[in-house]
Design a protein that fits this description.
- α5 packs antiparallel against α10.
- A hairpin with a 5-residue loop joins β14 and β15.
- The protein starts with a strand and ends in a 5-residue tail after the last strand.
- The chain folds into two domains: 130 residues, NAD(P)-binding Rossmann-like Domain (Rossmann fold), CATH 3.40.50.720; 243 residues, Dihydrodipicolinate Reductase, domain 2, CATH 3.30.360.
- The strands form three sheets. It has a nine-stranded mixed β-sheet with strand order 16-15-14-13-7-12-11-8-17. The chain has a six-stranded parallel β-sheet with strand order 3-2-1-4-5-6, sandwiched between helices. Strands 9-10 form a two-stranded antiparallel sheet.
- It is an alpha/beta fold and 381 residues long.
- It has ten helices and 17 strands.
- It is globular and about 65 Å long.
- The chain binds nicotinamide-adenine-dinucleotide.
- The site of nicotinamide-adenine-dinucleotide (NAD) has 22 residues, from α1.
Protein backbone atom coordinates (compact mmCIF):
# COMPACT_ATOMS: atom_id res chain seq x y z
CA UNK A 1 0.00 0.00 0.00
CA UNK A 2 1.49 3.34 -0.95
CA UNK A 3 1.28 6.35 1.33
CA UNK A 4 0.72 9.80 -0.17
CA UNK A 5 3.32 12.45 0.61
CA UNK A 6 1.57 15.71 -0.23
CA UNK A 7 4.11 18.29 -1.37
CA UNK A 8 3.82 22.06 -1.33
CA UNK A 9 6.40 23.78 -3.53
CA UNK A 10 7.24 27.35 -2.54
CA UNK A 11 8.90 29.03 -5.51
CA UNK A 12 8.65 27.97 -9.14
CA UNK A 13 12.10 28.93 -10.42
CA UNK A 14 15.18 26.85 -11.17
CA UNK A 15 14.98 24.72 -8.03
CA UNK A 16 11.19 24.56 -8.09
CA UNK A 17 11.54 22.79 -11.44
CA UNK A 18 14.47 20.58 -10.41
CA UNK A 19 12.63 19.37 -7.30
CA UNK A 20 9.29 18.91 -9.06
CA UNK A 21 11.00 16.65 -11.57
CA UNK A 22 12.47 14.63 -8.69
CA UNK A 23 9.10 14.14 -6.97
CA UNK A 24 7.49 13.07 -10.21
CA UNK A 25 10.10 10.43 -11.02
CA UNK A 26 10.82 9.17 -7.51
CA UNK A 27 8.61 6.09 -7.51
CA UNK A 28 9.59 5.19 -11.08
CA UNK A 29 13.10 4.48 -9.90
CA UNK A 30 13.01 3.87 -6.16
CA UNK A 31 10.93 1.23 -4.38
CA UNK A 32 9.39 3.32 -1.60
CA UNK A 33 6.12 3.23 0.26
CA UNK A 34 5.59 6.99 0.09
CA UNK A 35 4.35 8.47 -3.16
CA UNK A 36 4.80 12.24 -3.61
CA UNK A 37 1.61 14.02 -4.60
CA UNK A 38 2.17 17.44 -6.15
CA UNK A 39 -0.44 19.25 -4.11
CA UNK A 40 0.25 23.00 -4.02
CA UNK A 41 2.45 25.32 -6.05
CA UNK A 42 3.01 28.64 -4.31
CA UNK A 43 4.27 31.86 -5.82
CA UNK A 44 3.33 35.50 -5.31
CA UNK A 45 2.12 35.89 -8.88
CA UNK A 46 -1.06 33.81 -9.37
CA UNK A 47 -0.79 33.63 -13.15
CA UNK A 48 2.80 32.38 -13.04
CA UNK A 49 1.90 29.92 -10.31
CA UNK A 50 -0.95 28.58 -12.49
CA UNK A 51 1.37 28.11 -15.44
CA UNK A 52 3.90 26.30 -13.26
CA UNK A 53 1.18 24.14 -11.67
CA UNK A 54 -0.20 23.20 -15.12
CA UNK A 55 3.23 22.35 -16.46
CA UNK A 56 4.28 20.13 -13.59
CA UNK A 57 0.89 18.81 -12.48
CA UNK A 58 0.24 20.50 -9.12
CA UNK A 59 -3.40 20.26 -7.97
CA UNK A 60 -3.80 23.83 -6.80
CA UNK A 61 -2.00 27.15 -6.37
CA UNK A 62 -1.54 29.64 -3.54
CA UNK A 63 -0.04 33.12 -3.56
CA UNK A 64 0.70 33.32 0.17
CA UNK A 65 3.11 30.79 1.65
CA UNK A 66 1.58 31.40 5.11
CA UNK A 67 -1.62 29.69 3.97
CA UNK A 68 0.39 26.84 2.54
CA UNK A 69 2.31 26.01 5.70
CA UNK A 70 -1.00 25.91 7.62
CA UNK A 71 -2.86 23.86 5.00
CA UNK A 72 -4.33 20.52 6.12
CA UNK A 73 -3.78 18.93 2.73
CA UNK A 74 0.02 19.32 2.84
CA UNK A 75 2.64 17.08 4.52
CA UNK A 76 5.92 18.46 3.20
CA UNK A 77 7.01 22.06 2.59
CA UNK A 78 9.73 22.49 -0.02
CA UNK A 79 11.45 25.88 0.25
CA UNK A 80 12.78 26.92 -3.16
CA UNK A 81 12.72 30.68 -2.66
CA UNK A 82 15.57 33.20 -2.32
CA UNK A 83 17.71 32.95 0.81
CA UNK A 84 16.13 35.86 2.71
CA UNK A 85 12.81 34.00 2.89
CA UNK A 86 14.05 30.61 4.15
CA UNK A 87 13.95 31.42 7.86
CA UNK A 88 10.43 32.75 8.10
CA UNK A 89 8.93 29.97 5.99
CA UNK A 90 10.86 27.19 7.74
CA UNK A 91 10.01 28.33 11.26
CA UNK A 92 6.32 28.72 10.40
CA UNK A 93 6.28 25.31 8.69
CA UNK A 94 7.97 23.66 11.69
CA UNK A 95 5.45 25.25 14.06
CA UNK A 96 2.67 23.89 11.86
CA UNK A 97 4.20 20.42 12.21
CA UNK A 98 5.17 20.06 8.56
CA UNK A 99 8.16 18.17 7.23
CA UNK A 100 10.59 20.57 5.58
CA UNK A 101 13.11 20.30 2.79
CA UNK A 102 14.91 23.60 2.32
CA UNK A 103 17.23 24.79 -0.39
CA UNK A 104 20.77 25.80 0.48
CA UNK A 105 22.21 27.90 1.96
CA UNK A 106 20.05 27.26 5.02
CA UNK A 107 19.86 31.04 5.58
CA UNK A 108 21.81 34.23 4.99
CA UNK A 109 23.79 33.98 8.23
CA UNK A 110 24.42 31.64 11.15
CA UNK A 111 22.37 33.93 13.41
CA UNK A 112 19.46 33.56 11.03
CA UNK A 113 19.93 29.79 10.67
CA UNK A 114 20.15 28.93 14.38
CA UNK A 115 16.46 29.54 15.19
CA UNK A 116 15.56 27.39 12.17
CA UNK A 117 17.49 24.47 13.66
CA UNK A 118 15.83 25.05 17.02
CA UNK A 119 12.38 25.20 15.41
CA UNK A 120 12.65 21.90 13.51
CA UNK A 121 14.20 20.16 16.51
CA UNK A 122 11.54 21.50 18.91
CA UNK A 123 8.79 20.40 16.54
CA UNK A 124 10.48 17.07 15.83
CA UNK A 125 9.75 17.35 12.12
CA UNK A 126 11.86 15.55 9.50
CA UNK A 127 14.07 18.05 7.71
CA UNK A 128 16.74 18.19 5.02
CA UNK A 129 18.78 20.80 3.18
CA UNK A 130 19.28 20.24 -0.55
CA UNK A 131 23.06 20.01 -0.75
CA UNK A 132 22.42 17.85 -3.78
CA UNK A 133 26.03 17.43 -4.89
CA UNK A 134 26.49 14.82 -2.16
CA UNK A 135 24.16 12.73 -4.31
CA UNK A 136 26.25 12.85 -7.47
CA UNK A 137 27.08 9.12 -7.67
CA UNK A 138 30.79 9.87 -8.22
CA UNK A 139 30.90 12.12 -5.13
CA UNK A 140 29.04 9.49 -3.10
CA UNK A 141 31.65 7.01 -4.31
CA UNK A 142 34.40 9.39 -3.17
CA UNK A 143 32.77 9.36 0.27
CA UNK A 144 32.75 5.56 0.24
CA UNK A 145 36.45 5.42 -0.71
CA UNK A 146 37.31 7.97 2.01
CA UNK A 147 35.37 5.97 4.59
CA UNK A 148 37.19 2.81 3.47
CA UNK A 149 40.45 4.65 4.20
CA UNK A 150 41.71 4.15 0.67
CA UNK A 151 43.66 7.38 0.40
CA UNK A 152 45.02 7.20 3.94
CA UNK A 153 45.93 10.26 5.94
CA UNK A 154 44.63 13.34 4.13
CA UNK A 155 46.98 16.27 3.50
CA UNK A 156 45.09 18.48 1.06
CA UNK A 157 41.55 19.29 -0.01
CA UNK A 158 41.22 21.83 -2.81
CA UNK A 159 38.03 22.90 -4.48
CA UNK A 160 36.80 25.39 -7.05
CA UNK A 161 33.44 26.65 -8.20
CA UNK A 162 33.88 28.98 -11.16
CA UNK A 163 31.35 30.90 -13.23
CA UNK A 164 31.47 33.94 -15.52
CA UNK A 165 27.96 35.40 -15.73
CA UNK A 166 28.34 38.71 -13.84
CA UNK A 167 31.40 40.16 -15.54
CA UNK A 168 29.46 42.90 -17.36
CA UNK A 169 28.83 45.98 -15.19
CA UNK A 170 25.53 46.32 -17.08
CA UNK A 171 24.05 43.29 -15.34
CA UNK A 172 21.64 44.79 -12.78
CA UNK A 173 21.10 43.55 -9.24
CA UNK A 174 17.97 42.55 -7.33
CA UNK A 175 14.44 41.67 -8.37
CA UNK A 176 13.12 38.33 -9.51
CA UNK A 177 15.93 37.06 -11.72
CA UNK A 178 18.94 38.71 -10.10
CA UNK A 179 18.32 38.43 -6.36
CA UNK A 180 21.68 36.61 -6.10
CA UNK A 181 23.45 39.95 -6.68
CA UNK A 182 21.46 41.74 -3.99
CA UNK A 183 23.03 41.23 -0.58
CA UNK A 184 19.71 41.79 1.20
CA UNK A 185 18.13 38.83 -0.60
CA UNK A 186 21.14 36.56 -0.92
CA UNK A 187 23.10 37.28 2.27
CA UNK A 188 26.38 36.94 0.40
CA UNK A 189 27.67 36.35 -3.11
CA UNK A 190 29.69 33.35 -4.20
CA UNK A 191 30.36 32.34 -0.59
CA UNK A 192 26.78 31.37 0.26
CA UNK A 193 25.76 30.52 -3.29
CA UNK A 194 28.65 28.42 -4.57
CA UNK A 195 31.23 27.85 -1.85
CA UNK A 196 28.50 26.58 0.49
CA UNK A 197 28.28 23.55 -1.82
CA UNK A 198 32.04 23.02 -1.74
CA UNK A 199 32.18 23.44 2.03
CA UNK A 200 29.35 20.95 2.51
CA UNK A 201 31.10 18.42 0.26
CA UNK A 202 34.46 19.08 1.93
CA UNK A 203 33.21 18.56 5.47
CA UNK A 204 31.18 15.50 4.45
CA UNK A 205 34.28 13.91 2.92
CA UNK A 206 37.05 15.23 5.14
CA UNK A 207 35.52 16.34 8.46
CA UNK A 208 35.21 19.65 10.24
CA UNK A 209 36.85 22.87 9.04
CA UNK A 210 38.20 24.56 12.16
CA UNK A 211 39.80 27.82 10.95
CA UNK A 212 39.79 29.91 7.79
CA UNK A 213 41.54 32.90 6.31
CA UNK A 214 39.85 34.53 3.34
CA UNK A 215 40.03 37.25 0.73
CA UNK A 216 36.91 38.38 -1.07
CA UNK A 217 36.51 40.91 -3.86
CA UNK A 218 33.64 42.84 -5.36
CA UNK A 219 34.87 43.74 -8.82
CA UNK A 220 31.83 45.78 -9.85
CA UNK A 221 31.08 48.16 -7.00
CA UNK A 222 27.75 49.59 -8.18
CA UNK A 223 24.93 48.12 -10.22
CA UNK A 224 21.48 49.33 -11.12
CA UNK A 225 18.93 47.86 -8.70
CA UNK A 226 15.94 46.38 -10.52
CA UNK A 227 13.50 47.38 -7.78
CA UNK A 228 14.57 51.02 -7.35
CA UNK A 229 15.87 51.66 -10.88
CA UNK A 230 18.88 53.42 -9.29
CA UNK A 231 22.57 52.57 -9.17
CA UNK A 232 23.29 51.11 -5.74
CA UNK A 233 26.41 49.74 -4.04
CA UNK A 234 26.98 46.03 -4.58
CA UNK A 235 27.14 44.28 -1.20
CA UNK A 236 27.96 40.75 -2.30
CA UNK A 237 31.31 39.06 -2.77
CA UNK A 238 31.93 38.51 -6.51
CA UNK A 239 34.89 36.28 -5.75
CA UNK A 240 36.16 34.51 -2.67
CA UNK A 241 39.37 32.63 -1.99
CA UNK A 242 40.10 30.99 1.32
CA UNK A 243 42.54 28.72 3.07
CA UNK A 244 41.14 26.28 5.62
CA UNK A 245 42.42 24.02 8.36
CA UNK A 246 40.55 20.78 8.95
CA UNK A 247 40.26 19.07 12.33
CA UNK A 248 42.17 16.07 10.90
CA UNK A 249 45.23 18.26 10.27
CA UNK A 250 44.80 18.62 6.52
CA UNK A 251 44.82 21.92 4.64
CA UNK A 252 42.06 23.22 2.39
CA UNK A 253 42.16 25.67 -0.49
CA UNK A 254 38.90 27.00 -1.93
CA UNK A 255 38.16 29.41 -4.76
CA UNK A 256 34.92 30.66 -6.18
CA UNK A 257 34.15 33.48 -8.58
CA UNK A 258 31.62 34.64 -11.13
CA UNK A 259 34.46 36.27 -13.09
CA UNK A 260 36.26 33.23 -14.54
CA UNK A 261 35.66 33.93 -18.22
CA UNK A 262 34.80 30.73 -20.06
CA UNK A 263 33.47 28.80 -17.07
CA UNK A 264 29.76 28.26 -16.44
CA UNK A 265 29.78 25.86 -13.53
CA UNK A 266 33.26 24.41 -13.16
CA UNK A 267 32.93 22.67 -9.82
CA UNK A 268 35.96 20.56 -9.02
CA UNK A 269 37.75 19.08 -6.06
CA UNK A 270 40.90 17.08 -5.45
CA UNK A 271 41.91 15.31 -2.26
CA UNK A 272 45.48 14.18 -1.68
CA UNK A 273 46.28 11.54 0.91
CA UNK A 274 49.30 9.45 1.85
CA UNK A 275 47.97 6.38 0.03
CA UNK A 276 46.22 8.02 -2.89
CA UNK A 277 44.23 10.88 -4.34
CA UNK A 278 40.71 11.51 -5.60
CA UNK A 279 39.53 14.10 -8.11
CA UNK A 280 36.12 15.17 -9.40
CA UNK A 281 34.95 17.59 -12.09
CA UNK A 282 31.24 18.40 -12.45
CA UNK A 283 31.62 18.84 -16.20
CA UNK A 284 32.42 15.11 -16.37
CA UNK A 285 30.22 14.13 -13.48
CA UNK A 286 30.01 10.43 -14.31
CA UNK A 287 33.72 9.99 -13.54
CA UNK A 288 35.75 9.83 -10.36
CA UNK A 289 39.52 9.96 -10.81
CA UNK A 290 41.50 7.83 -8.39
CA UNK A 291 45.23 7.45 -7.83
CA UNK A 292 46.23 4.42 -5.77
CA UNK A 293 49.79 4.47 -4.46
CA UNK A 294 49.70 0.81 -3.39
CA UNK A 295 49.76 -0.40 -6.99
CA UNK A 296 53.02 -1.80 -8.39
CA UNK A 297 55.07 1.20 -9.47
CA UNK A 298 55.27 0.17 -13.14
CA UNK A 299 51.46 0.31 -13.48
CA UNK A 300 50.81 3.03 -10.94
CA UNK A 301 48.83 6.00 -12.27
CA UNK A 302 45.58 7.91 -12.22
CA UNK A 303 42.58 5.87 -13.23
CA UNK A 304 39.13 7.04 -14.27
CA UNK A 305 36.30 5.19 -12.64
CA UNK A 306 33.21 5.35 -14.83
CA UNK A 307 30.65 5.53 -12.03
CA UNK A 308 27.85 3.68 -13.81
CA UNK A 309 27.92 0.12 -12.43
CA UNK A 310 25.22 -1.40 -10.29
CA UNK A 311 27.56 -1.51 -7.29
CA UNK A 312 28.14 2.26 -7.49
CA UNK A 313 26.02 4.54 -5.28
CA UNK A 314 22.45 4.94 -6.60
CA UNK A 315 23.30 3.41 -10.00
CA UNK A 316 21.43 0.15 -9.47
CA UNK A 317 18.27 2.27 -9.69
CA UNK A 318 18.89 3.50 -13.20
CA UNK A 319 20.15 1.98 -16.45
CA UNK A 320 22.73 -0.67 -17.35
CA UNK A 321 26.50 -0.34 -16.70
CA UNK A 322 28.14 2.23 -18.95
CA UNK A 323 25.09 4.48 -19.26
CA UNK A 324 25.13 7.78 -17.40
CA UNK A 325 22.71 9.79 -15.31
CA UNK A 326 22.78 13.57 -14.91
CA UNK A 327 22.30 16.66 -12.80
CA UNK A 328 18.57 16.09 -12.27
CA UNK A 329 19.22 12.69 -10.71
CA UNK A 330 21.08 14.30 -7.79
CA UNK A 331 17.73 15.73 -6.64
CA UNK A 332 15.98 12.41 -7.22
CA UNK A 333 18.63 10.64 -5.14
CA UNK A 334 18.32 13.27 -2.41
CA UNK A 335 14.55 13.00 -2.07
CA UNK A 336 14.80 9.21 -2.25
CA UNK A 337 17.16 9.30 0.75
CA UNK A 338 14.83 11.66 2.58
CA UNK A 339 11.82 9.40 2.02
CA UNK A 340 13.85 6.31 2.90
CA UNK A 341 14.68 8.12 6.15
CA UNK A 342 10.97 8.54 6.85
CA UNK A 343 10.44 4.85 6.30
CA UNK A 344 13.40 3.64 8.36
CA UNK A 345 13.08 6.28 11.08
CA UNK A 346 16.62 7.55 10.41
CA UNK A 347 17.21 11.25 9.87
CA UNK A 348 18.78 12.01 6.53
CA UNK A 349 21.89 14.16 6.15
CA UNK A 350 22.42 17.00 5.69
CA UNK A 351 19.64 18.04 8.04
CA UNK A 352 19.25 21.63 9.29
CA UNK A 353 21.75 21.07 12.12
CA UNK A 354 24.34 19.74 9.74
CA UNK A 355 23.76 22.55 7.22
CA UNK A 356 24.22 25.02 10.08
CA UNK A 357 27.86 23.90 10.24
CA UNK A 358 28.37 24.93 6.62
CA UNK A 359 26.71 28.24 7.42
CA UNK A 360 29.22 28.76 10.25
CA UNK A 361 32.12 28.25 7.85
CA UNK A 362 30.56 30.71 5.36
CA UNK A 363 30.22 33.28 8.14
CA UNK A 364 33.79 32.71 9.29
CA UNK A 365 35.03 33.13 5.71
CA UNK A 366 33.23 36.46 5.29
CA UNK A 367 34.33 37.63 8.74
CA UNK A 368 37.94 36.71 7.96
CA UNK A 369 37.81 38.63 4.68
CA UNK A 370 36.51 41.69 6.53
CA UNK A 371 39.04 41.43 9.37
CA UNK A 372 42.02 40.27 7.29
CA UNK A 373 42.88 37.51 9.75
CA UNK A 374 42.25 33.87 10.65
CA UNK A 375 38.82 33.16 12.12
CA UNK A 376 37.73 30.04 14.03
CA UNK A 377 34.57 28.42 12.67
CA UNK A 378 33.04 26.85 15.82
CA UNK A 379 31.87 23.94 13.64
CA UNK A 380 30.41 21.04 15.64
CA UNK A 381 30.44 17.77 13.72
N1 LIG B 1 21.02 23.01 -4.73
C1 LIG B 1 21.44 23.75 -5.75
O1 LIG B 1 22.34 23.39 -6.47
C2 LIG B 1 20.81 25.09 -5.99
C3 LIG B 1 20.85 25.65 -7.28
C4 LIG B 1 20.20 26.87 -7.47
C5 LIG B 1 19.58 27.52 -6.42
N2 LIG B 1 19.60 26.97 -5.18
C6 LIG B 1 18.93 27.63 -4.05
O2 LIG B 1 17.51 27.53 -4.26
C7 LIG B 1 16.85 28.71 -3.82
C8 LIG B 1 16.07 29.29 -5.00
O3 LIG B 1 16.97 29.54 -6.05
P1 LIG B 1 16.49 29.47 -7.60
O4 LIG B 1 17.73 29.44 -8.42
O5 LIG B 1 15.49 28.41 -7.78
O6 LIG B 1 15.83 30.90 -7.70
P2 LIG B 1 14.81 31.42 -8.78
O7 LIG B 1 14.98 32.90 -8.80
O8 LIG B 1 14.92 30.66 -10.04
O9 LIG B 1 13.38 31.08 -8.12
C9 LIG B 1 12.98 31.64 -6.90
C10 LIG B 1 11.48 31.50 -6.80
O10 LIG B 1 11.04 31.98 -5.53
C11 LIG B 1 9.86 32.76 -5.73
N3 LIG B 1 9.66 33.61 -4.58
C12 LIG B 1 10.44 34.62 -4.14
N4 LIG B 1 9.92 35.16 -3.01
C13 LIG B 1 8.80 34.45 -2.73
C14 LIG B 1 7.82 34.52 -1.70
N5 LIG B 1 7.90 35.43 -0.74
N6 LIG B 1 6.77 33.63 -1.74
C15 LIG B 1 6.69 32.71 -2.72
N7 LIG B 1 7.59 32.60 -3.71
C16 LIG B 1 8.62 33.47 -3.73
C17 LIG B 1 10.11 33.44 -7.04
O11 LIG B 1 8.92 33.91 -7.61
C18 LIG B 1 10.71 32.28 -7.84
O12 LIG B 1 9.70 31.44 -8.35
C19 LIG B 1 17.95 29.63 -3.29
O13 LIG B 1 18.04 29.49 -1.89
C20 LIG B 1 19.21 29.11 -3.95
O14 LIG B 1 20.38 29.37 -3.21
C21 LIG B 1 20.20 25.77 -4.96
Amino acid sequence: MSKPLRVAMIGYGFMGRAHSNAYKRLNDFFALEHRPVLQVACARNAEKAETFADTWGYSRVETDWRKVVEADDVDLIDICTPNDTHQEIAIAAAKAGKMIVCEKPLARTTAEAEPMVKAVEAAGVPNMVWFNYRRVPAISLAKQLMDEGRIGRVFHFRANFLQDWTISPDVPQGGAALWRLDVQAAGSGVTGDLLAHNIDTAMWLNGAITRVVARTETFVKERKHQLTGKKEPVGIDDACLFIAEFANGSLGLFESTRYARGHKALKTFEINGAEGSLAFNLEEMEYLDYFEYAQDSHVRGWRRIHVTNGEHPYMDRYWVPGLVVGYEHTFLNAIADFVKGLETGKSVQPDFRNALQTQKVCDAVLESARAGQWVATAVEL
